[in-house]
Amino acid sequence: MANTQTTVPLFVANTVLTAAQQNISAGTGVPVFATTVTRDAAFGGSNKALAEGQLAYIEASNVVQYYDGAAWATVGPLSSGLVCVKAQTAFSVALTLNVDNVFTSSYSNYKILLSLTAGSGSITMRLRASSTDTTTNYKTRTIYGTSSTLFAADATGTDDFYLFDYDAQGGGAEISVIAPQQAQGTTISTVTFGSSGANGYIYNVAGYQNSSTQFDGFSLFAATTGITGTYAVYGYSKTV
């Protein structure tokens, strides 16, 4: 994009101020970054110290943010309370889907929307930090049913969250992730539709990962064949 920046210039005495640098300031008013990742990379160190009151525009989510002295907060839009932090992204025939750098200190809680159109097997999820999956200390409680029959399942000390079973008859999940970036346990809750054989199943899942890791991403896994579909990630606004 024409206005996107990757650095925030720091001007020092007796250096040349170029027309290109002036044009960036005149054209945007505030720094424009492709994502929160490029925003964070542009601040700090000898380049530009991050200070309270700094503004930034994020192209990926179309929002203006300000730094409150401790974290980035969103100015707008806030009409729904949800801000897109990862636009809808397609994937195809994936046994493993790794999603990094979507959980930041800008938001405390997140929602993942997952839609599947092909594949099969149990769909599970792990939390990630610095591109590495955490494989211990998961707990999952599941209530699921088909027709008039309800079932319940309980799993502790596992290496992932179980979400639902799927065999290409249509399905998906709405996954809430609570406090992944905070130094405390992370909670998830899901409402999903999946299928197993000729049956359609509705799943309600609650899960907890009890380490104090500050997670920045997640992974999805298909147990049998690669899954095809889309996902998007949203942050819950901290303000009204």
Task: Please tell me about this protein's structure.
The protein is mostly beta strands and 240 residues long. It has two domains: 19-76, YefM-like fold (3-Layer(aba) Sandwich), CATH 3.40.1620; 82-236, Jelly Rolls, CATH 2.60.120. It is built from two helices and 16 strands. The chain has helices at 19-28, 36-42, and strands at 32-33, 55-58, 63-67, 72-76, 82-94, 96-99, 109-129, 132-133, 138-146, 149-158, 161-166, 171-178, 186-196, 199-209, 217-222, 225-236. A hairpin with a 4-residue loop joins strand 2 (55-58) and strand 3. The radius of gyration is 21 Å and the shape is elongated. The two termini are 30 Å apart. The mean pLDDT is 84.
Summarize the structure.
This protein has 240 residues and is mainly β. It contains two helices and 16 strands. It folds into two domains: 19-76, YefM-like fold, CATH 3.40.1620; 82-236, Jelly Rolls, CATH 2.60.120.
Specify the number of helices.
2
Query: On the 0-100 scale, what is the average pLDDT?
Result: 84
Query: Uncertain segments of ≥5 residues (pLDDT<50)?
Result: none
Please give the largest β-sheet.
12 strands, antiparallel
Distance between the termini: 30 Å
Secondary-structure element order, as H and E? HEHEEEEEEEEEEEEEEE
Number of domains: 2
- Report the β-strand fraction as a percent range: over 45%
- Provide the gyration radius in Å: 21 Å
Number of strands: 16
CATH topology of the largest domain: Jelly Rolls
Q: What is the name of the CATH architecture of the largest domain? A: Sandwich
Q: Pairing-aware structural class of the strands and helices?
A: mainly beta
Per CATH, the class of the largest domain reads: Mainly Beta
Shape: elongated
Portion of residues in helices? under 10%
